[in-house]
Write a structure and sequence with these properties.
Neuraminidase, 5 domains, 943 residues, seven-stranded antiparallel beta sheet, Immunoglobulin-like, nine-stranded mixed beta sheet, alpha+beta
Length: 943
C-alpha cells in the first residue's frame, strides 16, 4: 500500500536501484547477480518461449495504488540493454511503483504485453504449450507455443497467442476454462493433457498454506470436433466466428433462436460459470454495472461451414461482446461421449470491436465489400487469423499483388501512462505526451490521418524498396485518430508494419490490438436498452412496407412459399421476422447469393429413396413424420424406412435469381418489408400503455375464420383514408400518424389500393372509392351531405372512428347518415378503462366477442335514434348502457362507427383491430375475414 515507502515527513524511501520489486539474473555459480528489470509488483510465473524470450505474470496493484496497474498483466521482460535505456537503471520499469514527479521521477512505465480483465483475476501460473519429452501439445496443433495462463481469484485459464515483431510482441488471449476452485498453476503432460493445480477456499488466498488443494486433468478428448479460432465484427451489424474445420449443422441446432449476445464494460465469455468473487469493492462495482443484450436478427453457417455469421442490431458501443452458441452434445463421438462427464451444450466466445476494415479494391467503396483484420501489421494479422478460412481467401487475394485500403480509428491516448483506478485521482499532473506513429510498406503507401475533423500532417519517405509514412498526434490527444491507409497494387505479398514512440521515449513499440477501433464503433456508452439505435437505410428511401409485403407474397418473389414472418407462414426456411436487425448489404447479399451463408437448422438434404427417386430440400421432423420441403414450397411426407441414402446438399435450397425477377422498385419494397418494423402507432402518451394481449385471446376471436385462399378471387378495392389536423396531446387523436401507419397496413393486403386525403375527398376520389375511412375532427358542412348521400346510394362503405362522428350544428343531418352523431361541447365523455358489452352477437363483425376491455374514451349524450342502427357494443355511463360501436345499412351503402379510437395504442390492440378491419370489410359488402392477416403486424400482443 505504501509503494514509494513514504515516511511521515512525506519523503519517499523507494530506491529504483535497490532490489525491491526487481527481477534478478543469477550466474550459474551464484557468484553474481544483476537486475534485468524493475517495477515488478507480485510476479508468480516466469517462462521462456522457444525464441528464448522471457515472460512473466504480474498481479495488479491499483487496489493499493491508484495508478499501480489496474489489471493483471503478462509482461515481456527484454534482456537487451537498450530496452530501458531512458530509465535510471537502463532497464525496463513495469510501473509499480509508477512514475511520480517527486517520489519516482525520470522513469518510463513500460506497458504490458497483455492485460487480463476485468480487474482482480490474479494471474498466477503460466506455461508455454510445448511438447514434453516428445509428447503432444495440449489442444489443437494450432495452440502450440501459446502461453497457458491461470487466473487464481476467478478460476480462469487463458491461452495467449504471442506474435513476435521487430519491436516486440502482440498478444491475443482466449478464455478456455472457468473452474470453481482457485486456479493456481498449469502444466502440460507428455500425453498432451493440461494438469491444473487448484487451491480450496474463497479468493484471494483460499484456505491458506495448510489448506487442501486438488489436481485436475483437462483432456482434449475429441480432436475431430471443430474448435473456434477467431471471433470478430465484420461490419456494424455482423459478427463472425471462425472454426478450424467444417461444422456439422447438427452441432448448432436451434442457432438463431438460442444464440445469445451480451455486452458491457465488464462482460466476458462464460461469465455464467464464474462462482468465485474476489472480495473487493471494485469487483462489486463491476457486478453492478449494466449488462445489455444485443438482439440477434438471424444466424447462419457459411457455405463452407467454417464460419458462423450472426446478424445483430447495430453495435452500440466499444465494449466486450460475449457470444453463447448452442452446441449439441450429439456432435461428440459416441466412444468419447461415454467416457466423459456431461458437457455443457454451448460454446462461448468473446470479441471486442477492434481491428481494421479492409477493402481490397479501392473502387469498390462499399462496406459490403469490406473485410476485417485484427492489426495493421499484416504479418501479425496473418498469424492471428490462422485457422479462419474466410481470411485464407483474403491472404490468397493479397498474394496476387492486389491493392488494399485499411480504415480504423487509432487510440493514442496515454501511451506511456498507467491507467488510473476508477473513482480515484492523482495528486499531480503528467507532462504533455505526444505520440509519433511510423508506417513502413514494401509498396507505395498513402496515409490519411485526422482528428476531430482536422487532417494531420503526414510525412512520406521512399527509400529503396520501402515506403515510409509518419504522423505526429496532437499533444495529449483525447479523441481517436481517424486513419486510412492506401496500399498500392504491387507484386508479391504486401508488407506493412506500424510502430509508435513518444516525445519521452524514442524506442519503437508495437501496437496492442485494443488500440485499433473499428470505424463504425462509438466511444459513447448507453444508459439503457439499445432501442432507438436504428438508423435510416439510404437504399430503402422511398420504399413501402405495404407494397413490399405484397411482393413477399407474390409468385415472382415466392418468399411466402418457404418463409414465415413473425411466426406466421411456411416453415421450410427460417422465419424472416428478425431481419430488421440485419444490415442492408447482408440481406441483399443473401437474396443474390442464397448459398453464401446457410442457417444450420435449414441445411438442404439430398435424399435418395428406395423407389429410385431423388429429392432435394429441407428435411424436418414433425412428430413421427419426416417432411421434405423443396424450393417451390412443396412438402413431401416420408417415412424413415423409405430412405436409402441421405447427405447434405452442396447448395442452398433457396433458388437463385430472385433479384433478377424483380424490378428495382419491387426489390426496394421487398427489402423495406423485410428490414423495417411493421407500421404502428407511436406510443408517446405520458400514460402507461395497457397490457399486451395474449395469442390465445386473439386466436379465440378469430376462431372459425376463413383464410384468404378460400375467399379468392378477391374483388379489387379502392380505400381512401381521410384524416385531419392533430387536435390533442401526445398519444391522442393522432390522425396523421394513423394515416401513415394504416396506409401501409391496408396497402399490404392483396387487391387493395389505398389513397389518402386531408379533411374530405374530391369528386374524383369519391367516384372511384369503395370505402372511405374517416379519423379526424368530424364535420358535416356542405358539400359533405350531398356527396355522402351519392356515395352511399351507389353502394359505398363509410367508416367513422372516434371524433369523426362530430357534426356540431349539423348533428341531426349527420345522424341520419351514420345513425348517431355528436355536437361538440354538448356531449359527455370519459377517459380510462372501458368495458364494451357486445350486442347482436350473431353479427359477423362481433363474431366470438362477448365483452371487450379497452383503455380509451367513451362518448354519450349523443344525437340520433339507436333504433336506426344495429348496436354492436355499449358501455355503462351514468348508470346507463350507451352506444359505443354500431353499424347502419342504407342498402346498398353501409356505415360502421367506432367511438373507441381516442388513444393511439388502441389501433395496435389486436382485439380492437379485428373489429375495425371487420367493419371496413363489412362496409364494402366483403367477407369480414378478408383482412385477418392484417391483425398481426405490429400488434400489441405477446409472442
Amino acid at each position: 500500500a505504501n509503494a514509494w515507502l513514504i515516511d511521515e515527513s512525506g519523503k519517499a524511501a523507494y530506491d529504483i536501484n535497490s532490489v525491491r520489486g526487481t527481477v534478478q539474473r543469477v550466474s550459474p555459480d551464484f557468484s553474481r547477480r544483476e537486475t534485468i528489470c524493475t517495477g515488478i509488483r507480485f510476479p508468480i510465473a516466469f517462462a521462456f518461449n522457444t525464441r528464448g524470450d522471457l515472460f512473466c505474470t504480474d498481479q495488479e496493484g491499483a487496489t493499493w495504488l491508484s495508478n499501480g496497474n489496474p489489471l493483471d498483466e503478462l509482461l515481456h521482460i527484454r534482456l537487451d540493454a537498450a530496452a530501458g535505456r531512458v530509465n535510471p537503471t537502463g532497464r525496463q520499469h513495469f510501473g509499480f511503483p509508477p512514475r511520480h514527479p517527486r517520489h519516482n521521477p525520470g522513469v518510463i512505465d513500460e506497458p504490458s504485453t497483455f492485460d487480463f480483465g476485468p480487474q482482480h483475476q490474479s494471474t498466477c501460473g503460466m506455461v508455454f504449450n510445448e511438447p514434453v519429452h516428445g509428447g503432444r501439445v495440449f489442444g489443437p496443433a494450432a495452440w502450440r507455443g501459446q502461453a497457458l495462463v491461470a487466473g487464481e481469484s476467478r478460476g480462469k485459464i487463458w491461452r495467449t497467442q504471442l506474435v513476435a515483431t521487430d519491436s516486440g510482441y502482440v498478444a491475443a488471449a482466449t478464455l478456455i476454462a472457468c473452474l470453481q476452485m482457485l486456479t493456481v498453476d498449469v502444466c502440460v503432460s507428455p500425453a498432451g493433457d493440461l494438469l491444473v493445480a487448484c487451491h480450496s477456499g474463497p479468493p484471494d488466498w483460499g484456505t491458506g498454506p495448510t489448506g487442501p488443494g486438488r489436481l485436475f486433468r483437462i483432456r482434449y478428448a475429441d480432436s475431430g470436433l471443430p474448435q473456434p479460432t477467431l471471433a470478430w465484427s465484420e461490419g456494424p451489424r455482423e459478427f463472425r466466428i471462425a472454426f478450424d474445420r467444417p461444422v456439422d449443422p447438427g452441432l448448432l441446432s436451434g442457432l438463431a433462436e438460442r444464440v445469445r449476445v451480451e455486452y458491457g464494460e465488464h462482460v466476458r465469455a462464460g461469465d455464467r460459470f464464474e462462482t468465485l468473487v474476489p472480495p473487493y469493492a471494485v469487483v462489486r462495482a463491476q457486478q453492478l454495472r449494466p449488462r445489455f443484450r444485443l438482439p440477434v436478427g438471424s444466424a447462419a453457417l457459411s457455405a463452407d461451414r467454417r464460419t458462423v455469421l450472426l446478424n445483430t442490431e447495430r453495435l452500440p458501443q466499444r465494449a466486450t461482446y460475449a457470444v453463447t452458441l448452442p452446441w449439441s452434445a450429439a456432435g461428440v463421438s459416441g466412444a468419447v461421449a461415454g467416457a466423459l462427464p456431461a458437457q455443457h451444450p454451448q460454446v462461448d466466445v468473446e470479441l471486442q470491436p477492434h481491428g481494421l476494415q479492409v477493402l481490397t479494391e479501392h473502387s469498390a467503396g462499399s462496406d459490403a465489400a469490406s473485410r476485417w483484420l485484427p492489426h495493421v501489421d499484416l504479418s501479425v494479422s496473418q498469424q492471428l487469423t490462422a485457422g479462419s478460412h474466410s481470411h485464407d481467401s483474403l491472404w490468397s487475394e493479397l498474394s496476387t499483388g492486389a491493392g488494399m485500403r485499411l480504415r480504423t480509428k487509432l487510440d493514442l491516448r496515454s501511451m506511456l501512462r498507467p491507467a488510473v483506478q476508477p473513482g480515484t485521482t492523482l495528486d499531480y499532473e503528467w507532462p504533455a505526451e505526444t505520440a509519433v506513429v511510423t508506417f513502413r510498406a514494401n509498396r507505395p503507401l498513402q496515409l490519411t490521418a485526422g482528428v476531430a475533423g482536422r487532417l494531420l500532417e503526414v510525412q512520406g519517405l521512399h527509400a529503396g524498396e520501402h515506403w515510409v509514412s509518419v504522423f505526429t498526434a496532437p499533444a495529449d490527444v483525447s479523441e481517436l485518430i481517424d486513419l486510412q491507409i492506401d496500399l498500392a497494387a504491387g507484386s508479391g505479398v504486401p508488407q506493412l508494419t506500424a510502430v509508435w514512440h513518444t516525445n519521452e521515449d524514442s524506442r519503437a513499440r508495437p501496437f496492442p490490438l485494443r488500440r485499433f477501433v473499428l470505424p463504425w464503433v462509438s466511444e459513447g456508452t448507453v444508459a439503457g436498452a439499445i432501442d432507438g439505435l436504428a438508423t435510416a437505410v439510404p437504399e430503402l428511401q422511398g420504399g413501402s412496407w405495404g407494397r413490399g409485403r405484397r411482393v413477399f407474397h407474390s409468385d415472382a418473389a415466392g418468399c411466402y412459399r418457404c418463409h414465415a414472418m413473425q411466426g406466421r407462414g411456411a416453415a421450410i426456411g427460417p422465419d424472416l421476422g428478425n431481419l430488421i436487425h440485419r444490415d442492408y448489404a447482408s440481406v441483399l447479399r443473401d437474396l443474390q447469393n442464397p448459398g453464401f451463408a446457410i442457417n444450420p437448422d435449414y441445411v438442404g438434404q439430398t435424399v435418395v429413396l428406395k423407389d429410385g427417386r431423388v429429392l432435394t430440400g429441407v428435411l424436418q421432423t414433425r412428430g413421427d413424420r419426416m417432411l421434405l420441403g423443396d424450393a417451390q414450397g412443396r412438402q413431401t411426407e416420408l417415412r424413415s424406412d423409405e430412405i436409402e441414402q441421405m447427405q447434405p446438399a452442396t447448395t442452398s435450397v433457396m433458388p437463385q435469381g430472385i433479384v433478377e425477377k424483380l424490378s428495382a422498385e419491387d426489390l426496394r419494397d421487398l427489402l423495406t418489408y423485410l428490414m423495417t418494423p411493421a407500421p404502428r402507432m407511436p406510443l408517446d402518451s405520458p400514460l402507461p400503455a395497457p397490457p399486451l394481449r395474449t395469442q390465445s385471446e386473439v386466436a379465440a376471436v378469430l376462431a372459425g375464420s376463413r383464410g384468404v385462399d378460400e375467399l379468392r378471387p378477391l374483388r379489387p378495392l379502392q380505400i381512401v383514408l381521410v384524416d385531419g389536423v392533430k387536435d390533442h396531446g401526445p398519444g391522442e387523436h393522432d390522425y396523421p400518424a394513423w394515416r401513415t401507419a394504416w396506409q401501409e397496413l391496408l396497402s399490404s393486403a392483396e387487391a387493395v389500393n389505398v389513397r389518402v386525403v386531408r379533411e374530405f375527398p374530391d369528386d374524383e376520389l369519391l367516384a372511384t372509392a369503395d370505402i372511405l375511412v374517416f379519423f379526424q375532427k368530424g364535420s358535416f358542412e356542405d358539400p359533405r351531405p350531398d356527396r355522402m348521400d351519392a356515395f352511399l346510394q351507389r353502394g359505398g362503405g363509410a367508416v367513422y372512428i372516434h371524433w369523426a362522428v362530430n357534426g356540431n350544428d349539423k348533428v341531426r343531418d349527420f345522424a341520419k347518415r351514420i345513425g348517431i352523431a355528436s355536437w361538440g361541447g354538448r356531449i359527455a365523455f370519459r377517459h380510462g378503462p372501458l368495458t364494451l358489452d357486445i350486442h347482436n352477437q350473431d353479427h359477423p363483425i362481433v363474431r366470438n366477442y362477448q365483452r371487450l376491455q379497452l383503455y380509451d374514451e367513451s362518448y354519450w349524450k349523443l344525437t340520433g335514434d339507436p333504433g336506426d342502427v344495429t348496436l354492436l357494443a355499449t358501455s355503462v355511463e351514468d348508470g346507463m348502457a350507451t352506444p359505443q360501436m354500431w353499424v347502419r345499412d342504407h342498402q346498398p351503402g353501409r356505415v360502421f362507427v367506432s367511438i373507441p379510437g381516442h388513444y393511439s395504442w388502441t389501433f395496435d390492440d389486436p382485439l380492437f383491430r379485428v373489429l375495425l378491419l371487420r367493419g371496413i370489410a363489412w362496409t364494402a359488402n366483403e367477407p369480414v375475414d378478408r383482412f385477418n392477416e392484417l391483425v398481426f403486424p405490429a400488434a400489441r400482443m405477446s409472442r
